[in-house]
Amino acid sequence: MSVVSTGLRTLVHREILRFVRRPRNTFLPPLITNVLYFSVFGVILGARVGAIEGVDYILYILPGLIVLGVIANAFENASFSIFHGRWNEYIHEIQTSPLSYTEMVGAYVSASALRGVIIGVLIGIVGAIMIPLTIGTGVGLANPVYALAFVLVIAVLFAGFGVMGGLWARDFDYLTVLNQFIIRPLVFFGAVFYPLDALPPVWRTVSLVNPMVYMVDGVRYGFLGIASIEPNVSLAVLAGAATAVVAIDVWLFQRGYGLTE
Q1: Which SS3 state, helix, strand or coil, does residue 261 take?
Q2: What residue spans define the domains of the chain?
Q3: What's in the keyword line of the UniProt record (predicted)?
Q4: Which of 242, 247, 249, 252 is the most exposed place for a label (fewest CB within 10 A)?
Q5: pLDDT tens across 118-156, in order?
Q6: How far is CA 205 from the centre of its chain?
Q7: Which positions ≥6 away from 128 have C-beta within 8 Å?
Q8: Residue 22 DSSP label
């Protein structure tokens, strides 16, 4: 007997089909965007920047670009799906289903996290194609277990944030505000394109408040084996944050926040 209920499997299946059936909207934009990132920052600027911590610049930015793709897509998928259901009033069908609140949140979070992971893998493939063409060496995984663990935790964390965003939003502009004015600034100041140790001491300390720093640093440790912060500490903090965010999502569903107004 399966431990996963039929209702949960059905909702997860529907949420996965929702983005798989629209590949031009789901997969093509991040592929094009990252080809541009690798071309401009890696190939053109990378030749001027040189190596960082013994790693060619185009290879150095790969983990940060993967994190950027994972969080953007995990967040967008969950927030849009929840808000679209509220906007068109079909989310009430899920609320009145025999699913528990934990199963409802679990379905939205798992499907959205899967989309984030798929996009992260696709960005890794783009890097694996473009990086050898640029510097003549391939892309390896110094610590594959850490790379996988960080990507999974980051995807779940931002899928959980996406559920919150979808419940909070009052119109589609709210989703744009969350993505453009909160998430992207945190990402670009999260040591995606530069090493943390390159900052003056004051700004390095300030940067440690930014959770993106721990995510980028952790994935970079998985790919390149270099880290400015102890990876086990980063992973523990992010796993704790992901657990707390998902628990808050379940609580919000129980209270009917954004669902009964």
Answers
A1: coil
A2: 6-255
A3: Membrane, Transmembrane, Transmembrane helix
A4: 247
A5: 999 999 999 999 888 877 777 788 999 999 999 999 999
A6: 24
A7: 138, 139
A8: -
